[in-house]
Amino acid sequence: MPSLKYWDIIYVKRTITIPANGQYEAEYAIKSGTSTNTSHTGYTGSGFVDSFDASGKGVSFIINVPTSDTYTLRFRYGNGSTTFATRNLFVDGQYAGTLQFRNLYNWDIWDTVETTMRLSAGVHQVVLWYSPGNEGAINLDNLIVLQQTTPAKTSARSFWMNNWSNLIGIHMASKLSPVDNGNYGPRLAELHFSGDWPTNQIVDATAFFRDETDLTTLKYTNAHNFDSEAWFENDGTLTVKYLNYNGSALPVQITKQYAMVPNQNFLVIKYTFLNQTGNARTLNFLEQVHLNNKTSGNSTPGWQHGWWDVSRNALGTDMSQTGQFYIELGAFQTMDSYQVGNDADSNPNSQTSSPWYQFDANGVLNKCGDLWSQNLSMGFQKLITVPAGGSVTLAFYYAIGST
Description:
The chain is mostly beta strands. Helices cover 2% and strands 49% of the residues. The strands form 5 sheets. The protein has a 9-stranded antiparallel β-sheet, with no helix packed on it. A hairpin with a 4-residue loop joins strand 22 and strand 23. It is elongated and about 70 Å long.
């Protein structure tokens, strides 16, 4: 740099190149009070930002976007503490909101947090800052900038699926939308079939879990305690990601996917269990559907018939006496136990009680294979071992028809 007088001017030109996939590594960003490290696995690039743990610290990215459009800013982070962390976001010096970084099972696990905003074409400064009132520690791995036309994992309040013909399913969960303060867990909340579009044929179809790795069983049997997020993939499948349970991170990441089969009256559900630890985990799983009875408000409700079909590895129900359809819950793998139950029966030792009460209390189902009830529920149970760092999948289908 030459010696300058006060009237001299020097120009420094800096070109901001858009990186591949719009991914800006945090270790190359401008750091204020933070440092870089490689002490945890799974990071991208050459490392990550750590010591991002106190007020007055921050990370500043200089980004370049090609056109004026709506963009998603997706931050990849680690948070192995036991509580959420928060950071304020500033874009070009203007406050752009406060981001929440949920706690994860340990510091070797990474997740993403994102927000969407309008950006003009050109260079922008994106700052993640630990402001007064923020809390918690995080590691920061990268920032990915996605144009509006690029798929983003942005949740909505509910998701409608259809087979282009005669079947509609609706997945719901509380808090998918920031304005939703309900307390309902992730579930298939509605199933509608042509011939009686207004009637929801189910109360819900929900999954429940127990971690039986250690002597003390950890129960995840209240679905309403799960936080979750959901989004549609490019191929039309719906992905649901189970997050924390009662604020605590799980050692196994659970993902659920729905696929409606075009012009066929069934949908497929697949669960993937990814072990995020260095030791094998033993999980117990229940898939349960609670059938709706459209005559339940009558003085004498109609009856519905449920049964176990060993040849099809499926649980079937005949709801024709209540003016409804036939529904089948089938498994694509051998299950450990099954139950056709009366959802109003809460005694886990009763042969005909609801699958959930049996699973919650005992971890197995009583294998009732034939039942008439005015409040019918059915379920499958299976114990699985997920290897360290590995995954296991389970798959099911729900079919519906007039015969």
